[in-house]
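Narrative of activities, Objective 1.

The group set out to show that a structural description can be obtained from nothing but a protein's sequence at a throughput compatible with the screening campaign. Below is one input-output pair from the validation batch, recorded exactly as produced.
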Amino acid sequence: MKARIFIGSSTEGLPVAQRIKEYFEPEYDCYIWNDGIFKYNEGFLETLIKSASLFDFGFMVFAADDVSRIRDKEYITTRDNVLFEYGLFLGRVGLDKAYIIKDKEVKIPSDMLGITLLEYETTANEDGAKVPNDDFENHLSELKKNIDEKVALGYLGLFPSTVIAISYFENFIKLLTDEIMRQGESIKIGDNSYKSARIRIVIPKTLDADMKRQATIYFKKINFKSCPINTVHRTYPIFVESTPADEHKDEAIIADLPTILNGIDQAIDMYFCTGHIGKSQEQQLTEERELNNFTRVLKLLISRDAYCREIVEIVDEDNNPII
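Output recorded for this entry:
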């Protein structure tokens, strides 16, 4: 469930990028540009465009790499390719998720003067190389607070995971929860009545081209049976924990594996224009990212609804709670 961060820099800025990675890595999946992202059989731009779609945030280190002459004045500037990467991530993930982390001496283009920047000062280490001073971690702490807040919120991205999570919650989970709470201590599901019920949302390990078949196989494996439940809006087919004929449980366990996730799978296939059998590494990473975002948005929606907080939980296929 970790969000992904891409850290771009020049070769000279790698020590700064590495310190950023070490700071964020306990809670985030961090990748520096030299962590095997760029492939030998693909062009730099092609790989970079694909990579920008796989990450939730982009950090660009503007190190004091070059000296540029602008209108007869000399300025300390960052490497052109780092500036290009920032622009690419800015277009992909958005202004609020692409960040510049720059040496205080570096001049930036005037169009960026309104952007909030994380600035650091450098000191010379034992080898004479410039490294961020001791205040750098304090700046990273403030940046992390900002990132943590954004991760806790749902946001619209390149793929429809946020919209699908909202639709699933509003058109199924919320209505089902309202009905369970309305019926009180006599909840009618199929031919049985229960004093209470819990809803268990099961997040699949991977997306599948046919989520309905995947759900059918899963519920058969855990011995849940399909039953109807009537609400004021419509009748929903749901899966309920099976019990022997001579046994009765006061609480019904209702489980659902969101087949609506099939829409994300189709969107990813269309984006990557797949002409092959199987899934590339980029597709698998994108699927994982979108499943994570779907789950984060769903958790947020559940936490904001008093009824849902009481009876809805999110688990993985092994029935482990997703925190």
